[in-house]
TrEMBL record:
GO biological process, one term: polysaccharide biosynthetic process
Species: uncultured Aureispira sp
Protein name: Peptidoglycan/LPS O-acetylase OafA/YrhL
Domain Acyltransferase: from-to ranges: 7-318
UniProt xrefs under InterPro entries: Acyl_transf_3_dom, Acyltransferase_3
Transmembrane intervals: 36-57, 78-105, 125-146, 155-174, 246-264, 271-295, 301-319
Length: 332
């Protein structure tokens, strides 16, 4: 598949922001630093857009039957994810990284944890994202069917209406604090569909981002969106968080493009490299910080976090090579 440098950069930017956000929680930062680091969690919205882009672009170039598509997703995402869950459960037999439970472990393996709030965050709270992406995989061919019937703009409008309806429903049901509700795939359908619409344009070699957009404009829109996102989050509480996805995505995306356009070669190279490891880094980063925290409890939190930041990339590289070797061997 054709490589898009900006797409690869956005992956690296998003995973870096997400890891720093999760690791900052181990530093017990005081305001306003805590609020600033909280914004790093918005990187997940870019991941959703990129997922819609990647899946639909691949579908355009090489359509797959539902069976082959699910089989491919299982080998690329589900199995590496389950390997990390099993590794987490094994390590937790010796150090208290996570609270072991056969029911929780089964919830990950058999996927029923995405419908049980009590275990959705077991073996690492960021694994909710994997549950949400698996829901998108199961529904992907239905979404493709709707996309085939509509042009990009009507398709996006329909997706926005569906996501907004789901958000309103969750808030009216007073379920906005529960991850199985506030992170169900319909909440993010519009972002996934946005990625699909961008992929549709890219496949036709149409312009995605107009060249010559001023850096000052990117930064201004990014700051304004971040402020609105913060206001909704801080002033409107949990319901506000349900409605701030548009501002969260806009802010983090415009900041990311702003940084990309600065063309700082060392930084761009690092983020492009990290982007290629986004999946293993996401799957492993919580396990890494918890293991280090337990084994190095005598160290100051800042040093534990620095050790985790330094360790996560080489560990992700080794894990990725192990996964590739496993699949290569399994085909023999």
């Amino acid at each position: 598949m054709k490589r898009f440098e900006l797409i690869d950069f956005l992956k690296g930017y998003s995973i870096s922001a997400t890891v720093l956000f999760h690791y900052s929680k181990h530093l017990q930062l005081s305001n306003p630093f805590e609020k600033v680091m909280f914004f790093g969690g918005t990187g997940v919205h870019i991941f959703i857009v990129l997922s819609g882009f990647g899946l639909y672009y691949s579908e355009i170039k090489r359509p797959l039957t539902y069976k082959r598509f699910i089989k491919k997703r299982i080998s690329k995402i589900y199995l590496p994810y389950i390997f990390v869950i099993l590794l987490s459960a094994f390590i937790s037999l010796f150090i208290p990284a996570f609270q072991n439970s056969l029911y929780a472990l089964g919830g990950h393996v058999f996927l029923y944890k995405m419908f049980d709030e009590s275990i959705i965050g077991s073996y690492g709270y960021p694994t909710w994202f994997i549950s949400m992406m698996l829901q998108f995989y199961f529904a992907f061919h239905i979404i493709i069917w709707f996309k085939s019937k509509l042009r990009n703009k009507p398709f996006l409008v329909l997706s926005i209406l569906i996501s907004l309806s789901w958000t309103i429903f969750v808030v009216l049901m007073h379920k906005e604090t529960e991850r199985i509700w506030n992170s169900f795939f319909l909440q993010y359908l519009w972002e996934f569909s946005l990625g699909m619409a961008i992929a549709d344009k890219a496949s036709k070699d149409e312009k995605i981002i107009t060249k010559g957009v001023k850096q000052s404009l990117l930064l201004t829109i990014g700051i304004a969106s971040a402020v609105l996102c913060g206001v909704l989050t801080l002033k409107a509480g949990e319901p506000g968080k349900m409605f701030n996805d548009f501002f969260a995505l806009t802010a983090t995306a415009f900041f990311a493009v702003f940084v990309f356009n600065l063309k700082i070669k060392p930084l761009n190279k690092i983020l492009l490299f990290v982007g290629k490891l986004s999946t293993p880094i996401y799957l492993l980063h919580i396990l890494v910080i918890l293991v280090i925290t337990n084994l190095c409890s005598n160290l100051d939190p800042i040093y534990r976090v620095l050790l985790a930041v330094i360790s996560i990339v080489p560990i992700a590289i080794v894990y990725q090579k192990m996964i590739k070797a496993y699949f290569k061997f399994s085909k023999l």
